[in-house]
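Subject line: Sequence and fold of a protein, written as structure tokens
Area: Proteins and the way their chains fold up in space.
Start of record: The labelled sequence and token lines come straight after this line.
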Amino acid sequence: MACKHEHCSCHEHEHHHDNDNSKLEIILLIISIALAVAAFLLELLHVSEIAVGILAGAAIILSGYDVFLEGVKSVINRKIDETTLMTVAVIAAFVLGEFVEGAMVTILFGIGEMLEDKAVENSRKSIKKLADIQADTANVIIDGTERTVESKNVKIYSDIIIKPHERVPLDCVVTEGEGFADASAITGESMPIECKAGSELLSGMINGDNLLKARTSKEYSDSTASRIIKLVEEASESKSNNEKLISRFARVYTPIVMVIAVLIAFIPPIFFGNWTSWIYRGLVCLVASCPCAIVISVPLAYYSGIGKASKAGVLIKGGKYLEALAKVDTMVFDKTGTLTEGKLKITNIIPYKNYGDEDILALAASVEKNSTHPIARAIVEAYNGETLEMSDYSEQSGKGVSAVYKSKIIECRASDSGKSSSLIYDGECIGEFELKDKARAEAKSVIDEIKKHTVMLTGDNKRNAEQIGKELNIDDIHYSFLPQDKLNIINQLKSAGKTVAFAGDGINDAPVIAAADCGFAMGLGSDAAISSSDAVLSSGNLKALPNAFTIAKKTVRTAKTNIVLALSIKAIVIILAALGFAPIWLGVLADTGVCMLCVLWAVRLLK
């Protein structure tokens, strides 16, 4: 039973091939067990030793032929692994006349490998199911006729039909129909979302009971499901510090324990005699010391943790970010769009210089119409008329926007008097706007639940920042910040020895997200924020954040538990073997038995 822990292909013919191999392995194991029992009985009855050897040898070959082939390949490739150790141990046991023990070792190893492979395979299937959220086909309307087309061939702005209980094939906007959609596979949210004409649907959602017509807004490769699958796949390739440590440890550990086993086998008998007994003890050490329990279970723990997090609506890009998340002691939030809904509304207009409210609003909306800033959007949405012709539009991050109107400069910028925005025309303030943003419904409970030092960074003014900060019980508030100011705060916190997580939603947050030990992007909207982030809150809200911390801590704790458990049991068995108290089958249990325990402990993270 050679180790088979590489990523499996999901092609159907390979699946059948694997099933056939599994059935053959089980049949051969059953025959091997019968032959080993027969050999054991003959040995008890002191019948011909040659017959015992033949039966045991047949059992060894049938149950372990693939292990020995892999062991020989490893030796040829100058690589020492568990198959090498098992091959050496079984051959030596046979040479020493321990025929039945040699058969028992091979059979136990085979059973352990089979159960271990099954556990790993089940965990991979569970994780694959988490990422299996993409519809292969779409119902596209072409020349007035509905046709079934592969999703990857559907162009942007195509009209599609989403039938009841079908998975949404591509990101789209509903054009006809209304109902509800299940978004749990994408966002981790259990409550269905209402959809009607104008509603945005993300690929991977499942339509409810009603037929919907929609127009695609993204192509297959850019749709939400594709991006989630890509993030999960990339995450499995990104190694944590513990995983890297284990790989380096295994390269050093295995040769060392082989030397120890050789020393136990050949040094004591020089002084005390009894070569057979000491070589047997060395073989037990050799079998018990195999590091596969750690090498397999630690990466599997991180893989399971990432899968569990993705199911909860948190896409974490790799094991090292899970580790960072488990250590976080300071949580930094952007304000607008992260702690708040990001939907500013004008609450009051204050005109000066004999201007009226509508005059101020028309000028402000005209200069702000090209900006994507939340203040600009609020002003533009509040104005219902036609915008004025202006030229030389300019926007400076954190400062505001400007344009030229009737040969004079007009600006919208932060107000000196503490209001949200002021309108400057030809150097004079001609009006001010009071705007207000609303805190997210979940923000306060999330901050209370994560129980970490919290910091809020915002480009907004002192008054608004302190109002939101007080409402949410935030410890540390920084306002009127430019993007580079936010970056400086993150670097200062890290320099002070803090492990920092940051959550933000905008393009301006991308440098800060990248600088944090673990940076969260809010939702799947901003490409810049997502590409620079270490994790994505796919629901676009903060609800999943406490769960992300819990999963990260549990994952790291599981990996460390497996390391301590495996090394402790191996150390005990090696000591017992050196003292002559451990039979070779106990060495096998210390290897494959412990490995199976560690694997099961790791995959429980998915449940």
